[in-house]
Every structure is written in C-alpha cells, then in structure tokens.
Amino acid sequence: MRNPIAQKLREAGHDIAIVYPVLTNTSVRWWDRFIISLALILLTASAWAYLLWLRADMDMGGMDMSGFRIIPSGTGYMMPAHTPWQAIEFAFVFAMWTVMMVGMMTPSAAPMIFMYYRMGRLTETRGTPFAATAWFVAGYFLAWTAFALLATLAQWVLERTGVLDTAMANTNEILGAFVFLVAGSYQWTRAKELCLVECQKPFEFLMRHGCFRHDARGSVVLGLRHGAYCVGCCWLLMALLFVGGVMNLLWIVLLALFISLEKVTSSFGRRFVAPAAGAVLNVAGTWMLMLTAGLH
User: Fold this and answer.
1) Which in 100, 128, 165, 272 has the greatest CB count within 10 A?
2) Do 261 and 273 form a contact (C-beta atoms < 8 A)?
C-alpha cells in the first residue's frame, strides 16, 4: 500500500522508510499473561475485600450478641439463636464460604491456570485460547462451590447442635481436638500425597488427562477434575476454621499461605512441609485433649 506523503518525500530526495508496527507472537503472549494475571489479582482482591467487609460487620462495635447469631450478610442481619435457619441465611453462609474458597485457593491455582493457557498457545491454531482458559477456571469454581456447599451444611449441623458461638467458632474442646487430630493425620495419608502431586505438577497432569481442550465442556471437566484434587489437598485443613472461627481472618490468612506453600514447594512441600504440619496438628490436638482431661 503506497503512502503519498512518503512518496513525495522520496521524490524530494529524502531517504525514508515506512515502518508498520506488527504485534508479534511474543508481545501477544506477554499481553495475554498480563490480562490473566490482572484478572486473577482482581478476583482474589475482590474476594478478600468481601471477607473484610463481612468481618467488620460481624464485629458490631462490641455489642452484646448473647442470644443472637450474626448472619454474614454485611448488613448487620441477626437472628435469635434458638430459631432454625431460613433460606436467606443459608444463602448468605453459602456465599461466604464460596467467596472464601475463591480468595484462599485462587493464588495456589494460578500456576495451573497459566500452564493451561501456555499449553493452549502451543496447540491452538484458531486464535488465542482465552475462552478455553476461562472455561477451565469455571471448572475450578465448580469444585470450590461444591466444597462451599458441604461446608455450609456442616456449619448448619454444628450450629444446630449448639457447638458454635456468635463468631462461628467451636465451643466444644473435645470436638476441636478431634478436628486437629484428624486434619493432622490426613497430612500423612496416601490420599493427601496423591492430591498434592497432582497440584504440584500441572504439566504432568495435563499430559495424563488429554492436554489442552479446545471445547468448553472439555475445559470445564478438566478444570473440575484438577480443582477436585486441590480441594482434596486441603479440605480437612479448612475444617480447622470451625475451631478457630469461620470468620477469623488470621486463621484464614495463615491457612491460605500454608496451602500455597504446600503446592509451590514441589517435592519439599510434599515430603517435609505437609508431614511437618501434620505433626504439629497432632501435637496440638493431643495437647487439647490433655487440657480437657486435666492431665496437663
């Protein structure tokens, strides 16, 4: 395509060259990675902002909450402690657990999401694999949402049995010690190791399960499968929130950091971090039982 201005400059004796900038594959990949990173950061930050909002609402300025339970709605919604759950309360608690899973699990899932996208860049010939990657992440959300539903049901059962206080923390010391012991013992099991291996080696996981999927259904199923392994790594660790308080932000942060540490440290996390955490939890559970029995 001729440029009339450039042609006139050449006729006047000026030596010029016309450069048409082209977006190279490298720059496209850099831009795509930036977009995915930004999306994951915004998603995680939004989840944590929601949890902080709920936590601030549940503090209620030091008011006496005896006889009432606080609903995690962000609007100061309370119910008499003796009344059964209503559908709206179940929905709020379910939303809280779902958002909590997103905030805690997204950082540790990021390496797998990037690996899936990179695999798509290598195999996709019909454009960028953004859509398939988004469907893959949707599969993760399905796994996290399923766990959130189970956690909501567990909270409902515990609340109905009267072992949760207004901060949604366990008040039964024997039950708390049992949760510590079970969570600690699970850290040593073969099931824990298998789940952790799948989470620590995203490339090998994709190779074993058909690599990149171009279609939405295949991507969702693959994301759901890997998300289930990730939940399998930490589902009993999440149960510790019932001991320290479901909305105890310090416990949430510590668990999120530990879950990420387990997954990003590869063989070290599998052979040392996970077993060491199991030993600590078992000691803590045993100590709690001794305190309860008056043997300290």
Assistant:
1) 100
2) yes
Alpha-carbon distance 92 to 110, whole Å? 27
Report the distance separating Cα 173 and Cα 212, nearest Å.
48
Tens-level pLDDT at each residue, the chain (296 residues): 445 655 665 566 655 445 443 334 444 466 777 888 899 999 999 999 999 998 887 776 555 566 677 788 777 677 776 778 888 889 999 999 999 999 999 998 998 998 888 888 777 645 567 788 899 999 999 999 999 999 999 999 998 888 887 778 888 889 999 999 999 999 999 999 999 988 888 888 888 887 788 788 889 999 999 999 999 999 999 999 999 888 888 889 999 999 888 888 777 767 888 889 999 999 999 998 888 876 55
Report the alpha-carbon distance of residue 220 to residue 116 in Å, rounded: 12
249 within 8 A of 52, measured Cβ to Cβ: yes
C-beta neighbour count of 232 within 10 angstroms: 19
191-195: long-range contacts, CB 8 A cutoff, minimum separation 24: 191/232, 192/232, 192/233, 192/274, 193/270, 193/274, 194/229, 195/229, 195/230, 195/232, 195/233
Where in the chain are the domains?
4-56+85-293
